[in-house]
Every structure is written in structure tokens, then in C-alpha cells.
Amino acid sequence: TGVDSTRKLDMLRSIGADHVIDYTQEDFTKSGQRYDLILDVVVYRSIFNYKRSLSPKGIFVFVGGSTAAIFQALLLGPLISMTGSKKMGVVMWKPNKKEDLVFLKELFEAGKVVPVIDRRYPLSEVPEAFRYLEEGHAQGKVVITM
């Protein structure tokens, strides 16, 4: 299941999402559906919304988001993890392990994980790249080439 705005749903399908949800129309955390893993790269909901959407042994991980949401997850995530079977945490909190990076490298090399790159900018055009990101139209990563 992939969750994004209306204009990005086709992109989600193209990278393998069997089911897509338009967050501008539906709050997936209120659907009653339970997930084994929720990976959110722009967390903006309360950590408790994510918690109710997890299966009994589900895992919630986020990469970034609003300052308030990050602070709440950093503060409450470990407490929730210690008091139940659900795990909640931050990707950047733990250092990368060599075996995890090797595993990811193998997934990339096998084509099982394919990054979605929206645009590339040379280093000399970093201000333009930031303007593009600020507009909120990127449908993937914006890469700075050196």
C-alpha cells in the first residue's frame, strides 16, 4: 500500500504499489486497516494515529517530517516500544550497520529497489533545485550532481 497525493498515485503504482491511498481524500490511519510496517518519509500525524494503524507486532519508522511530529516520536516512540509489542522509531536514530548496507546494496544491484529520481541539477544550480523542492512538485528525489 502506498499513500500520497492525487498527482503521485500513478507513480506509486509504477513502482509496485498494489493499493494506493490519496491522503488528500482519505486518512489511512482511520480506515481500520492494520499494517505490519509503516515507513513514513514526511510524518505529520500524531504518533498515536500511526500506532492504531499497526498490526499487533507492527513497526513504525519515519525518516523526516514536521518538527512537532519528530519531537513527539523521539520522545514517545521509545516509551510505546517498551510498553507493548509495537515498535516505533526513527531511521536516523541508529547508526548504519555494515550488513544492513550490504543488504541494501544487493537489493539495488538486483533491481529490487529502484530509486525514483525526479530531476537532476548540477552543483551550480542548487538554488534552482531548492526552489523546485519548495514548490512541492517533486515526484521522487532531486539529485545534485557533482
From TrEMBL:
The keyword 4Fe-4S does not apply. SUPFAM superfamilies: NAD(P)-binding Rossmann-fold domains. The chain crosses the membrane at residues 59-80. Keywords: Membrane, Transmembrane, Transmembrane helix. CDD domains: MDR1 (cd08267). Pfam families: ADH_zinc_N_2 (PF13602). InterPro entries: Chloroplast_QOR, NAD(P)-bd_dom_sf. This is Alcohol dehydrogenase-like C-terminal domain-containing protein. It comes from marine sediment metagenome. The lineage of its organism: unclassified sequences, metagenomes, ecological metagenomes.
